[in-house]
Write a structure and sequence with these properties.
This protein is mainly alpha-helical and 173 residues long. It is built from 8 helices and 4 strands.
Amino acid sequence: MKQDTEYIRWFEDIRVEDVPLVGGKNASLGEMYRELTKQGVKIPNGFAVTAKAYWLVIKSAGILDELKAAMAGLDKTNVTDLAKRGKKARDLILGAGIPDDLWFEIKVAYDRLCKEYGPDTDVAVRSSATAEDLPTASFAGQQETYLNIRGYHDLRAACSKCLASLFTGRAIS
């Protein structure tokens, strides 16, 4: 079921070619959902919040220059400085919150999952890097994952924390 959304993509609509938009993990989930559910394999439905949504958060809050400043001159070997800069960046994103137009799409998508699986369905809020793994580097596990998230309040908080986790020490080092 195709939906007109600007910041959300349902697994059924995601293809492997969508890595730049939804990340590798979500692209794989989309492929798996689309291909295996029609073969009778039970895969839970879900949706991805796009990279475009991340940029909406940054631009709506007007924090891009502050984020750049926080990362300027980063010395990845100085763990104390790395932690301080990462915290500054995470605080900026957490302070930005989720803009109303993005939140509306997330709520509508969550409501659809609750209709499909029952009231207060628990969901996982996970990052999905839009960069491909390299022969010498893997991006798996760099950002946070939040499991058993239920209800609007916890969902909104987990989405913000997941976006902010792009600036954990392990993600920026």
